[in-house]
Give the backbone structure.
Amino acid sequence: MNSSVYVINPNSSQTVTAAIDAAVAPLRSVDGPGIVCLSLTEGPPGIQSQRDVDGVIMPMLRKASELEESAGAFVIACFSDPGLHALREQSRRRVFGIAECGVLTALTLGQRFGVIAILPTSVPRHLRYFGAMGVMDRFAADLPIGLGVAELSDEQKTLSRMIEVGRTLKSAHGADVLVMGCAGMARYRAALEEAVGVPIVEPTQAAVAMAVGHVRLSQAFTP
């Protein structure tokens, strides 16, 4: 039976993949589906530019093709959703992008969503995507913490910056729900939510929850 949800981190950072794996652990259950998190060895250490986004698409498609027969669903664990529509075109399985799922989940938890980005250069890329999604009338702001993917492992600095940006999104921009704009931020969700006082969406958790739900429902209706 095709059952595994494959969570593909399109960068090569095992640290980020380990954080993703820990973040989705509560969604695992003894009766499945399995949730398998993996890195893309051909990817850069962090996806921080449009060039990085575009460069990982073909390797990711090849990796997904290798996993197709044992997959129940795919999750692309990068907030730029690289190759989302190409993989949907290629695969017979459901494909979820964490940015799309994170934003859609946020819209169920508040009226105006804000996004915590890693770098200033990430923001225009996010805005193009939100515009394409048609959600700008519910958008508050997208602000960076000024740290690259590799720097997110500095827990004290990262959480401090995220709390500062989160409070600004809430107080100055009217965001009543926040989305974490990088898969590498996953470990900080609970602490950030407590500090800022609004719902925080960790997008990989949101996407994997949708993927697991889909796989379980599709199996329930399979003769």
